[in-house]
Here is the input.
Amino acid sequence: GTPASMSRFRGALVAAVLGDCVGGEFEGAEEVPMETVLQHLNGLEDETKGNCVLEYSDDTAMTRCVVQSLLNRSGYDQQDLARRFAKEYSASPGRGYGSGVIQVLKKLASPQLVDVYQPARDQFNGRGSFGNGGAMRAAPFALAFPNLPDVKRFACLGAMLTHSCSLGYNGAVLQAMAVHLSLQGALCLPQQFISRLITEMEEVEGEEEALRDVVFLLKEAEKPFCERLHRVRDLMDRNKVSIEEVISELGNGIAALHSVPTAIFCVLHCLQPRDYLPESYGGLERTIAYSLALGGDTDTIACMAGAIAGAHYGVEAVPQRWMRCCEGAEDADMNAARLHALYHQT
Ligand code: 8NA
Ligand code: MG
Ligand code: MG
Here is the structure.
């Protein structure tokens, strides 16, 4: 489609739900043979299966809050978003939230709370969370704001409601930027896509706060996301790369640093057909299948990769059968159209 077309918006939000719902099956599994992944995906084709049999988890629950808040407030409203997160958690606490973030969500429910960012700052003895919970819900910011500086700023603030460590919120900034660029058709030139992300993250990670967090508290590289993105570039330049290498170079865990660059790699790697994936699969199906085969935090990695890939391939690339099986996919499709209108109005 044309850049920033409606189909890309719908693809991004629907494929994110798909990744979450389909990936839930393998969350936390150490090893997931590709054969098992393909069996699971084949099962979705079964006509006798009911609709919405695969439930969404925290990834989609929180993404829906971001979407509703952006639409209702016609932009970013921290009080409103914080309230929605708290309400959603208390209504459905069993969606598989991270064990730390639950404390924040309970505090955000308090009517006495003055600073909505304070509960997140108090996490992990004041270090803040470095989990991928901010990144997993970052896609809607790219679908609401057409300008990159807005995407970066609001993805960051939206993540800071639960993730105050730079390794947490910068993961959200990176994920939102990847969706933003994909929406513009930037994945047609993969080398330029990854270079652009590195350039942008150089600036983001050059901020004082980020340098302090990583150097003094967590002993990571000076610009950890940039370092990982360089590894992504090295891996995509190679003809053959094993699942084990991807896991050891990029990770598959619940830290944003060990999952956002991984999700980006999944999308880039699956731009071409691969001999271990069915020939009948298009790029979007390849991306989801490949994300699951990495194991670890499969729902979240597939959710993030799904958003980026969906923005590239568009909603036509989403198999109808898969979509039908996933709770919340229909809602995501409708909300994407509303975000498309907001994006073109702001
Ligand atoms: P979070 O903020 O609770 O972070 C997730 C986990 O990361 C925490 O529970 C800690 O174990 C660890 N962590 C984060 N920051 C620090 C720190 N500064 N010091 C020490 N440990 C830290 O929740 P979140 O929203 O970031 O979590 C997102 C992930 O958890 C998603 O993948 C989501 O699906 C969920 N989840 C994952 C699994 C799994 O097995 N991979 C299981 C259940 C839930
Ligand atoms: Mg989840
Ligand atoms: Mg997860």
Remarks:
- The mean pLDDT is 95.
